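# nightly structure sweep
# worker-07 picked up a monomer target from the shared queue
# config: single-sequence mode, recycle default, output format = C-alpha cells
# input follows
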Amino acid sequence: MTDKLLNIALCGVMCSLAACGDVNDIPAPDPQKYITFSVPTIAFDYNETPFSRAELVDAIEEFKVWGYCIPNDLYGNQNKGQATAVWDNKSEFFTTGPDVLNGFTVKVTGGETSYDKDNAAGGISNPMPWYSGSEHLNANDYNYGFIAGSATQGTFTMTTTGIAASAHPVLKFELPHTSTNINTELDYSLQPDALVGTKFDQSNNSKVGLSFQHIMTGLRFRFHNQCTATESDRKDLVIHRVTFSGEFYKTAEFSFAKETMQGSVTGDTYAGTFVLLDKDQTIEAGSSDLMRHDGDRNGRSVKLLLLPNPNATLEKSPDEIDDWALGRQKQITIEYSISGGVHRTFSTDKDFRLSYIPDPNTLHTANFHFVGDEFVVTFQADNDTNWGNGSDSNLEIH
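# output follows
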C-alpha cells in the first residue's frame, strides 16, 4: 500500500514537471492568425559607447502600441467597407479611437515580443487575432496601422482630434518634470530618451515590424583651447563646472493624418538648471575635447536631450511672441581657470537664439572656443553621425 501511494506521488510530481515543461515550450503565436511584433528597430546607428539613459536608448525593451484598421462612418459606426483603404485615405475617420489595440504594453525579452490582449498593462503572450471570419468578408485585404511610443520615463497618451474627416490620431508625450523654478538643479543623466515608432498599411500575414526614431534633440559640448602650447607661455584650460539653465518644453504632440508624422510642442514647460559637468576637466593648450561626464578623456561624452519645437521661428514675430527652438531664458554658464589659476565664470547671453531649427532625432554640438581670455560659442549640427541631417550654425556668442 505504501509503495502504491509512493508511486502515485511520484507520478503526480512527474506530471507536474511535464506540465511546466509544456508551458515553457508553448510555440510562438502564428503571425498569420495573430497580431505579433518583431523586435523593433531604431532608425539610426550611433557608435559611441557605452550607452546610458543619459544618452541614447540603443535597444527597446518595452513600448505602448495603438492599432487601427476599420475606420468609422459619419455616424460613428465601423465602416468595414473602408478597412482595405490605405492609411492616408482613412486615417481621419477613426472618430472612436483605435479599434485593434488601445495602448497595450508590449515587452521585448530575449529576441521575442509579448503582450496580453486581456491585460493592456502587459502579461503573458496572449495576442489579439487579426480580423477574420464571416463578419469580415474581405479580411485578407484589410490594411492595419500601428503607432507606438517608448520611453524610460514620461508618459505617452493617444487622443483623437475633431470629427469624421479630421479625426486622425495624435500621440502625446509628456516629460516627468514638475519644476517651475529656474534655479532648481536638474540631473541631465536622468533626462529620459523617448522614441516613436510606426508601421502603416500592414497586412495580416506577417509580424508587425515597427521602426522607431528619437523625438528628442541631442546636445553635446566640445571645448577648444586655442591658446599657444609653448612651454614658456602654456595656458591649459581647466573646466570646473558647466550648467545649462532655462525654461524647456515639456510636452510634444505627433499628428498622424498621413504616414509621415507632424510634430509640435504645447505651451507646457518646466524650468531648471541642468548640471552638465561638476568635476574638473583639463583641455590642454592647442587641443580640443568633448565634455566628459566624469572629466576623464576616456569617459562618455555628456549629451543633453531636449524636446525641440519644429515650428520655431528664427526671429521675434511682430507681436513679440517668440517660438523658441529649445526653450526660453536659456543660458550656459562655465566656471573655469587657466592652468589652475583664479577661477572665472563665463555665461552666454540669456535667452540666446539659434540661427537654425534643430530637428528631432538629430545631434548637435555646442563648441566653446577659448581664445585668449574669452569664449566664442558656436552651435553646429553633427552631420557625420547617423542621427539625421541638420544645418550648420553661424551663431557666435562672445
